[in-house]
């Protein structure tokens, strides 16, 4: 049935019901008609194109948001993949989102069909943080994304992936990490803050041109905001904000922490940019910020994203990517090493590029210095907390010198 015929039929049916039940007033009748029209529009809009991925039934307007387990959303999504296949769809509010599950299908989408998946979809949360979809490295699109990605890769190769220099930086930072662990004097301690400090300092040297003391107040504030932001971006609160932005932006709740943390991180980065502007020597760039400021002078009128606002957002993206994922991998690595003590000392190369070098050198240096264990009678959990990354539950370890 064509849409206009369906609407006409429902209106006639509604008027017939009103006459049948002698509707008491005009206002009530109009409200009823309006509700019917909303349902009509919803079901017409709901119609999927041919070959659209299947998915679970969804509530009008709300979609599947409240079906998702807030603490373990990946469990819900994994169950959907078991039912509907490795490509399926759910509704987040009024918007349909397609999920790809399983490494073969993910590789097909992100590697084999990379050109088809290169752009980022609209996200109200990202738009609010990045002031649209044409800023930063990870959520920009089109010409800006291509130019900024190419520039960042070139700079990382210069300052971060030159093998001898980066390995020396990681070895030096590992020494600071070992000294901090030795200060625990054999007592049980939470390793997460120390691992965060060490990993973040590697990307800080590439982006900011310097490392921070582990007790530096501004450094710790940045790491706190980073952790908070990464957790909330992958939480149910971020899904709710993207599903109902007009409502959520006026409501109190944890989702507001995403934006306050992003603002605080951006403010800290802008202070670093101002310091670089005062000390800049175009003939001797020291890091990513210096290179960006030099490039900005040559591309001031271009539309390739070379302005200070975008510099702050690109640094934010590099700081997030360069700290959060590697630190979490080290945390999980410690848990598995403690659960399998017979493999400590063995060397394994994980990940790719800079992350692979960091993981390898940090692990090797720590295992050469310490034997790791946990408290007697405590079994470390391999479950975790889902955010933008998967985080282990809080745990404490012993680091005993060999």
For the record, what CATH class of the largest domain applies?
A: Mainly Alpha
Residue-averaged pLDDT: 82
**Rg, alpha carbons:** 26 Å
Structural class: mainly alpha
Protein name: Cytochrome P450, family 2, subfamily N, polypeptide 13
Membrane topology: Peripheral membrane protein
Cofactor: heme
Pfam family, one: p450
Layout of secondary structure:
Layout (H helix, E strand, L loop, with lengths): L2 H18 L5 H21 L26 H12 L2 E6 L2 E6 L2 H10 L11 H7 L11 H18 L3 H20 L9 H16 L9 H17 L2 H8 L1 H4 L7 H24 L8 H11 L9 H32 L13 H17 E4 L10 E3 L3 E3 L5 E4 L1
Antiparallel strand pairs: 1-2, 3-6, 4-5
Helix pairs in contact: 1-2, 7-8, 7-15, 8-14, 9-12, 12-14, 14-15
Describe it.
It is built from 15 helices and six strands. It is mainly alpha-helical. It folds into three domains: 1-47; 53-118, no CATH class; 142-401, Orthogonal Bundle (Cytochrome p450). The strands form three sheets. Strands 1-2 form a two-stranded antiparallel sheet. A two-stranded antiparallel sheet has the order 3-6. Strands 4-5 form a two-stranded antiparallel ribbon. β1 and β2 form a beta hairpin. α7 (163-182) runs antiparallel to α8 (192-207), α8 (192-207) runs antiparallel to α14 and α12 packs across α14. The longest helix has 32 residues, at 308-339. It is globular and about 75 Å long. The N and C termini lie far apart (77 Å). This is Cytochrome P450, family 2, subfamily N, polypeptide 13. One of its GO terms (cellular component) is endoplasmic reticulum membrane. It is a peripheral membrane protein. It is found in: Endoplasmic reticulum membrane; Microsome membrane. The chain crosses the membrane at residues 5-23, 29-45.
